[in-house]
Amino acid sequence: MIIVASSNGKVGISAAMEVLRNGGSAIDAVEAGIRLVESNPQDNTVGLGGIPNLLGQVELDASIMDGRTLAAGAVAALQGYEHPISIARKVMEELPHVLLAGSGAERFAAEMGFQRRELLTENARETWEEQLRQAIPEAVLANLQEEPDLRQWVQRVRESQRAGGTVNFLAQDADGNICAGVSTSGPGWKYPGRVGDSPLIGAGNYADNRYGAAACTGLGEMAILSGTARSVVLYLKMGLSLEEAGREAMEDLHALASPYLGGMNVVALDKDGRHAAFSNRQDRTYVYMTGEMDKPEELPRVVVPK
Questions:
Q1: Do 237 and 262 meet the contact criterion of CB atoms below 8 Å apart?
Q2: What pLDDT, in 10s, does the model give residues 173-231?
Q3: Contacts of 134 (CB under 8 A, 6+ apart)
Q4: Other C-beta atoms within 10 Å of 101: how many?
Q5: How many of the other CB atoms lie within 10 Å of CB of 39?
């Protein structure tokens, strides 16, 4: 049994491992671990306290994939619900679809009994207002909701755009089944409705019991254009080692045009429970925990420079 997560997953990794120790599935563990991160108001990358878009709305993306069946569920541009990972799981289990977005995802969440709540914390609101005042005139800011050319202000705040963040969880249970899950609020001050890689199966998330799993954090457009999570698993299928597969998927990003270049991080797990993580930036870490460990360990990622 093993859990691998992005560094902010430390909040939930011990609880996720406890699920596995009690006989729970990899899917149960991934959901349990991510929910704790989503509920952490100090983590501005997901759920409660997530970074808002340009209009001050917290929009959430999430996905979960079952490596045993290759089934998956995802939600995108979801507002007003703290646990998109749980809603994504319900999409996987209750619908003949993979991805629900916007108002449709919110309707489904209500139908499944999830409770709405305000996600924009006072701290996140103050940061949003401070950043926008630096880039947008007060007269425009006062009527930003009605602004007919919102895209120009997205460009203006791009320089001060707060890189968001994402939580990744990969788990392998006692039966050898693998699950991958991802949840995010995306980059700060994004254009309303922007969807990154996190809810897109093959881009930000992929799991297949036969080979392994991978999940991404960073500039989502990069993973979308390169199919990064699926690439890692395909390279494993081709017979590459875990480190070789991760490096190859990271190097695929080098061909992207400059508007889509930025930070990218990947966590990966192979079918035999070996783990690794990769980044194109220095000093990035990840965490892992096995069933024999009392607490998680944090390790550096393999650096594959841009």
A1: no
A2: 999 999 999 999 999 899 999 999 999 999 999 999 999 999 999 999 999 999 999 99
A3: 160
A4: 17
A5: 16
**What is the C-alpha separation between 233 and 268, in angstroms, rounded?**
9
pLDDT in tens, 259-289: 778 899 999 999 999 999 999 999 999 999 9
**184: phi then psi, degrees, rounded to nearest 5:** -160, 160
Q: Assign 205 to helix, strand or coil.
A: strand
The string of DSSP letters for 37-86 reads HHT-TT-TTSSTTPPP-TTS---EEEEEEETTT--EEEEEEE-S-S-HHH
Name the residue range of residue 181's domain. Answer: 2-303
Q: Measured in whole angstroms, how far is the alpha carbon of residue 71 from the centre of its chain?
A: 18
CATH of the domain at 16: 3.60.20.30
Cβ burial, residue 76 (10 Å; 0-12/13-18/19+): buried
> What's the CA gap between 229 and 213, in Å, rounded?
8
Q: What's the domain count of the chain?
A: 1
Task: Check 166, 184, 217, 228 and give the catalytic one.
Answer: 166
Q: Is 245 left (phi over 0), alpha (psi -120 to 50) or beta?
A: alpha
166 catalytic per annotation: yes
**Residues 217, 219: Cα–Cα separation, whole Å:** 7
